[in-house]
Amino acid sequence: MSTTEAALEHLRIIRSLMEKAHIYRAISAPAALTGGVLALIASGWPVWHAATHQGDAVMCDPCFLQMWLVILGIASALNVLLLAKEAKRRGQPLVSADMRMALRAFTPPLLVGGCVGIGLIVFLHNLTLAALVWALCYGLALLSTASFSPRSLVRLGWAFVLTGLAAFFAWAACSDVRLLASDLGPASLVMGLTFGVLHVVYAAAVFFSAKPAEVNAE
Fold first, then answer.
1. Contact in structure between 194 and 43 (CB atoms under 8 Å)
2. Whole-angstrom Cα distance, residue 151 to residue 8?
3. Transmembrane ranges (predicted)?
4. Distances (CA, A) of 46 to 42, 50, 74, 107, 185
5. What's the sign of the alpha-carbon dihedral 100, 104, 105, 108?
6. pLDDT averaged over consecutive 10-residue blocks of the chain (218 residues)?
């Protein structure tokens, strides 16, 4: 395929993704709501326990990692299931050219964030910094699809990035928080505010909005 043909094919895929943006926006809402509710439940107890027991942990570091990997697995499986159902309805394969372009865009930040976060927990036992890396890289992954995804997802990406940066500076500037006996409470608070609250707000905005967000190529 020549450079011109490759460019035309690239533009065709972007146009196809933009035309389906309202569909992907609607599909993403149930998975976002499920992940958000699970995140709020998972983060609520550790935050409350740390606040009432001078920062003591209610679970071990590996348990924190395992719990969030399970939540990630549930939300991801639901998202794939919904995408597969929609692809079947349209008579298209799940892993289409559109899907491959989206995967190429958001896989690098997700891979870096996931690996660095796990390394921070397993080797450095820094849960809070791991949670911040996860939130920031997830936001960057959403923003990496800005050229063809719904505006609501782009706004969600910016919300993750800005909330993650604000939480980072608050954590870095507060030595009392960083010197707690365990950082399970602060880490759970970061996860609850980002993957919990932001996902629930996003899902509610999609469910209650009258019209899908308009998507324009930049």
1. no
2. 24
3. 23-45, 65-84, 105-125, 131-149, 156-173, 185-208
4. 8, 6, 20, 30, 5
5. positive
6. 68 64 74 94 91 81 95 92 85 78 90 97 95 97 87 93 96 85 91 96 86 49
